[in-house]
Specification:
Blueprint: E1 18-21, E2 44-48, E3 62-66, E4 82-84, E5 87-90, E6 104-109, H1 124-130, E7 138-140, E8 148-150, E9 156-158, E10 161-167, E11 172-177, H2 207-217, E12 241-248, E13 251-256, H3 263-267, H4 277-283, E14 296-302, E15 306-311, E16 330-335, H5 338-346, E17 352-353, H6 361-370, E18 375-379, E19 386-390, H7 402-410, H8 414-421, E20 426-427, H9 435-438, H10 445-448, H11 464-473, E21 481-486, H12 492-507, E22 510-515, H13 519-526, E23 540-544, H14 551-556, H15 572-582, H16 587-604, E24 607-609, E25 612-613, E26 615-619, E27 623-624, E28 626-629, H17 635-638, E29 647-648
Parallel strand pairs: 4-8, 6-16, 6-17, 21-22, 21-23
Antiparallel strand pairs: 1-28, 2-3, 5-18, 7-9, 10-11, 11-13, 12-13, 14-15, 15-16, 18-26, 19-23, 19-24, 20-25, 27-29
Helix pairs in contact: 7-11, 15-16
Length: 650
Amino acid sequence: MINRFRLLGFASLLIVIVLVIGACGSDDEAPTSTPARGPTSTPQVIVATPTPGPVGPTSTPFIVIQTATPTPQPGLGAQTTRINGFRWIQNEPNWRVPPRRGGTHTFANSTAPASLDPVLSRSFSSLAAVSMVYSSLIRCAVASNQVVGDVSQCVPEADAVSTWSQTGSGKVWTLKLNPNATWQTPPQTAFGYDAKLTPLYGRKVTADDAVHSISYWLGRLKKADGSPQPTVAQGSHWTNIDTARAVDPVTVEVTLKEPDPIFPSSLADYQSRLVPPEVFALDGDYTKRAVGSGAFILDKFDRAVKSEMIANTKFWKNGGDGKPLPYLDKHGLLILNATLARSAMITGQIDSALGVGIVTPADAINFGRQCTSCQIAEMFSAKSIYGLGFKTEGPNAAFVDIRSRIAIGKAIDWQNIINNVYAGAGRLVPNTAATGILYDDNPSIAKFSEGIASDDGNPWVFNPTKAKELWIASGHKAGETINLIFNPYTGLPNTVLAMVGDIEKNLGISIKVNQVSDINVYYAAVGFNPGQTHQNFDGLTVYNAQYRPTLALELAGMQKGNQLNFQEYDNPRIDELAAEAARGVTPERTRQIALEVWGIEKKELKRFPLPEAARYIVYSGRLRNAYQQNGGGEAFHLGGHIAEVVWLAS
C-alpha cells in the first residue's frame, strides 16, 4: 500500500483529498513518444514575505508561482503520469492517450439533491446535481493539468479567472477574469429556461458578476422586494473576505479583513461558485433553475430519480485535441443506493458512483471478479474526518473530568478496530491537519500518541482495568447510561458499533445510541450553524472534522469564539499558532505548527480521532481522465465540474 504523504513545496499547506477516476483498456492508444508540454500562460512569480509571527523562526520569503489554466497537452487527454497515495487494485490507468469525444457519462449518488443552489448549502447532494453547471474563480487543478497528483494536495489553478495577484501583505487581491468566459445559452426546452433571462444567455462573465457572487456567498444581497437573501451556510473559507469591487469589466479587487498570502486556496473550495445576478433578480435565490458558465447545461431534472445535462457547445475552454470542451455529449445523475449502484456498475449502466458497498480489501477483490473491466483503487482521506466528542462544557457536564475521557479511550481497543472492522486496511491519524503535514508515512498508534507522559494517561493504550479505575476516580460508576448522538455518514455506523461495544464491555456501562438521519438535528446537537451554542448533547457525539483547504483555516476552527470550535478550545497558544499560520509560513514551519497543536490536543483530550478506513474508488472500464481534490470537490460527488475534462473510451 502506498503510504507516502509528503507534501511538495508551497502546496503542502493544503489539506485536501484527491480522488482519481482513471482507466485502461485495450482500445487506448499509447503515445509513441513523450510530447512536450502544451503552452501555458506566462507565470506570475510573486515573492511573498510573511509578517513575522510572535513565535517560531524568522519568516523568510517564499515564491508562489501562479498561472492561468494550463492548456492540456497537445494531442493527449491528460498530462498525468501517476497519483501519489493511490494503490491500484485492478486496471491501473494510462491517461496519456488521445481523448475520444462523445457519449454519456452517468454518476450514481445515494441521496436526492437537497437543492439546486450551489451556494446556500454545503450539501453534497446539491453539488452532485449542479456543480458541473457552474464555474469557480479558482479551483483545485484537475487531472489534465497535472503531471503528478497527490492525495494530500490541492494545487490552485485558474478557472473563470486568467490570473491573480496580491499587493502588500496579501490583504488585497486582484483577479483578472478570462475574457472568453460566458454564461450558458440553454435550449428553450431545458429545465428552468425563461425568456426573461434572454439578456443573460450567452453574455460575457464580468467583474460585476463576480462581485455579485461574492456578495451572495456572504449573505449581503437584497431581493427585488427589499427582503434579505436566504441565509447561506457559510464555510470558514469566506469569513476573511471584507469587500469586493469591480475595477473594470474584467478585473475584481477583493480586500480581506486580515492578510492571507494563500487566499487563492480558500477560493478553491467547491462551494465558491459564480452565479448570475439576473437569476437572483428573477427568483431571489438559485433554487428554481441552474444557469452557470460551466461545461454542462442542466437539461432535465427529476429530483428523486435523475438529472440530465447536455454539453455546453459554446464553452470557452479547449481540450487536448484543440477543440472546445467538454469531450462528453451528456452527463447524467441517477439516485441509487449502494446496492443498486453496484448492480448498475457491473451491468454497465453507470460509470461512477458515490459508493458500491466496498468496505474491505477482500470486498474490492471480490467486486473485481464480478466486474473485470472496472477500475478499482484504494486510498485514504487526507486526514481523519471523524472524532469522538465529549460534553465538557456547562453545569454538571458528564466529561468535565479528563480522567473520564481517558477512561473511555482506554476501554477501546483501537488496533482491534483497525484489524477487524477494517480488515487491516485502516489507520489512526489526527483530525488536526492533513496526514502529510504531520507525518511522512501513516503513523503507528504509538507514533500517533507519542508525547503523552505515561501509558496510564494515554487513551490510545488499551487497558480495561485502568479504564475502570479512572472511570470511578472521575466520579462515575458502573451501570451508568451514557447517551451518544451521531449522523450516520457512510461507513461510520460500523466504527461506532465497535467502539460502543468496547466501552460497554470494558467499563460496565450502557451507551444509548441515537443515530439521527436528519442532519439538522445533528447540527443542532453539536452547534454547527451560526448562532447555535455548542455541545447541546449530554454525553458523547461524533464530530465531523470537515476538510479545510489550508492549515490556517483548520486552526481558525479551534480558536476561542469560532463557530467551528465545537470542542470549546480556550487555549491562548492555539490562538497564537492559528494567527501565525494565517499570515503565511514556510512548509517546514507549517509542520512545526501542526505538530505543536496536535500535542496540545493530546494534553486536553477534547476529542479522539476515530480510526479511518481505506476507501475504494470504482469506475467503469471506459471512463478516463477524471481527478479532483476534496477541497475543490470530491470527484462527481462534489466537484462535478471535472466532467469538463473526462472522456469515454469506446
